[in-house]
Amino acid sequence: MPNNSVRSWRGSLRLRLFGGTALWIALALGLTTIALDGLFKDQATRQFEQQLQSYLYQIVVAFDVDAKGNPLMQTAGADPRFNRPESGLYWQINDQSGAVLLKSRSLWDTKLNVANDALKSGEIHFHNLTGPAAQALIVAEQNVLLEGLGSKQFRVIVGSDTQALTRAIQTWQRSLWLFVGILFLSLLVAASAQVAFGLLPLRQLQRSLKALRDGDGTRIVGAFPTELKPLIEDFNAVIDTNEKIIERARNQAGDLAHSIKTPISVMSNALRLEQSRNHHDPALVASLQEQLQQLQQQVQWRLKRARIAASAGVPHARTPVKTTVEQLTRVMKKVHAEKLIQVTVSDIPADLCFAGELQDLQEILGNLLDNAYKWATHTILVNSAYADGKLRLTIQDDGPGCEDLTESAQPPHRGQRADESIPGSGLGLSIVRDLVGLYGGELLFQAGSSKGLRITLTLPGDLR
User: Fold this and answer.
1) Domain range for residue 144?
2) Residue 190 domain-assigned?
3) Structural domain includes residue 46
């Protein structure tokens, strides 16, 4: 399962772009949230300590000693919480040994247990400790040296409950995470829209390639971003080069056919002249006629094969199957008019196409239908199907069939005929086999459902 997820992630450009963007957004927002949270905590704590320091100054101002040197507090502090037990706001005065001299009424029968550490005069220290009723406190302490008492120092301590500070921080954190969450979702939507918008040219390129494959165009055209133009130009250059190669191969095939046609015609005329003489050798003439006929067939076939090899697999070559089958059945009815054969063609989808050129499909189906007409007694059935990019055509006749073909599921070898009683050269099915092979297809010969021969043809196909 993890391997499939990794392959899916790596195989999708959209997922890679969106996932990478989402990851960096989450990382950036996470670090920003942590930084803002820390800054707020620091600022709120500093403000809390400043407020605590102002309370400390109030107590220092109010602290004094009487004529006998006893400490006294002129006022208990302006905040009424100093007078309410366990209110969360406390003050306390210790001597140099750490003994409590005076304390606020809010401390009641407890005290602030502050370590009697070294503290310079006028210096303020802040500490965290536990106060009355297990309250979490922050305390500020300062050494005070009163005039007239020599070097005697007192430690003034003010502490405050951190509950309000904690609530303020928690409220900030909830608001911060809510805002960050909304911002994160908004940025994800924006990232998704950006990825979709950025990949629109690729969808346009996909449509152009599909149109090229379906035969609706010969080049990739359209307005594309600068980054895609070099790729499209190179692809169009490959198409142009391929078309030039095909055209050159066709021209060469035509030139070769023209150059060979003349010698064959000269030899044919010479043979007819020899045949018109009284003292010609019939066996020699028949042998030469047969060899010239085979030579002409072989030349035509080799030239056709060279053309097909050059053009097979052209991406924009598409041939409608239904139209081709209908045309061929009409032609075969005229060619074999002496045989009253009923040809039944199943409903072939109008958008079903052969991924190749028209003359090649005509050559293949023409030979197969001609073979079926030669052997059929009453009917020929033509069926079609399409699945997984493959065109499947089935041609079945009600003739006597052929056990050899049924057993081997292969057509005869070149020049070999299934039955010598039927006229023909034996090259038709062999030509079909070679053509089908050039297109990467399959040809299967089987016994029919009742009798006769069923030929199943598989070729590359498409639906427009």
Assistant:
1) 1-198
2) yes
3) yes
Both 372 and 399 in one domain: the answer is yes
Tell me: do 260 and 176 sit in the same domain: no
Shared-domain flag, residues 299 and 333: no
CB-based contact 315:462 (threshold 8 Å)? no
Q: Which residues touch 29 (CB under 8 Å, ≥6 apart)?
A: 180, 183, 184, 187
Domain-embedded: residue 89: yes
In contact, 411 and 443? CB cutoff 8 Å = yes
Domain count, the chain: 3
In a domain, 204, yes or no: no
At 39, is the pLDDT very low, low, confident or very high (cuts 50, 70, 90)? very high
What kind and span of H or E run contains 353? strand 352-354
What is the distance between the alpha carbons of residues 82 and 73, in angstroms, rounded to a whole number? 13
Per-residue model confidence as pLDDT tens digits over 130-150: 888 888 999 999 888 776 655
SS3 176: helix
Tokens of 30: 């996470």
3-state secondary structure of 355: coil
> Among the three residues 153, 181, 198, which one is the final residue of a domain in this structure?
198
pTM above 0.70, yes or no: no
Answer yes or no: do 112 and 179 share one domain.
Answer: yes
Question: Token digits for 428?
Answer: 């038709």
Residue with tokens 């503290």: 119
Q: Which two tokens stand for residue 326?
A: 């209908």
Q: What is the pLDDT of residues 15-29, one digit of tens each?
A: 888 888 999 999 999
457 and 328, same structural domain?
Answer: yes
Find how far residue 417's CA is from the centre of its chain: 52
Output 40-46 pairs: Cβ under 8 A, ≥24 positions apart.
40/169, 40/172, 40/176, 41/169, 44/165, 44/168, 44/169, 44/172, 45/138, 45/165
Burial 342-355 (b: 16+ CB within 10 A, else e): ebeeeebeeebbbb
Q: Are 198 and 17 in contact (CB under 8 A)?
A: yes
Same domain, 126 and 12: yes
What is the C-alpha to C-alpha distance for residues 374 and 360, in angstroms, rounded to an integer? 21
Distance from C-alpha of 84 to C-alpha of 104, rounded to nearest angstrom: 9
Distance CA 276, CA 23 (A): 92
Tell me the pairing of strands 124-130 and 89-94: unpaired
